[in-house]
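Bumping with the actual sequence this time:
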Amino acid sequence: MIKLRLLFSLCFFTSLAVFLPAQETSFSMIPIGNNRFLQKPWDLHFGPDEFLWVTERERGVILRVNPETAERDELIRLSDVFSSSGQEGLLGMALHKDFTADSAYVYLSYTYQFQGAPRQKLVRYDYMIDGADGSLSNPITLLDNLPATNDHNSGRLIFGPDDKLYYTIGDQGGNQN
């Protein structure tokens, strides 16, 4: 089984090398904030507003951070996020493709408790900004009561080239022996 996985991995990554064009990129890292600036960040986006958008998994917080000044704007603290310090909590985030500096939709994936058991959901929020103070409000649940555990929940969100929102859900540790 291990040999088969290794063979698959080698074939997969070799085929990626064939199909992906070589790109020269330059990368530089500039720290912002102190060592405790974020608490268990999970998803990070460089938004079209040129701010960093960050989820803090355990606290259920969405932050909008000025990358030049490190000024933080807490957009929302979700009261129903469930995290027991496993791999659950506020997981995925996607900014709508028609995002503007003044308003947009923000999509979030997170775990919550339902009848004593962890579940996962996908929720859309309205983003508004007044001066430098942004907020997320008017939640609309798109999917809920999805399976969740404290392991391998995934919850990643991305808009595809077809303008559809894609959502991943993990195996909840089901493939472990």
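The tokens above came from a reply further down the thread. Residues 102 and 130 are 8 Å apart (CA to CA).
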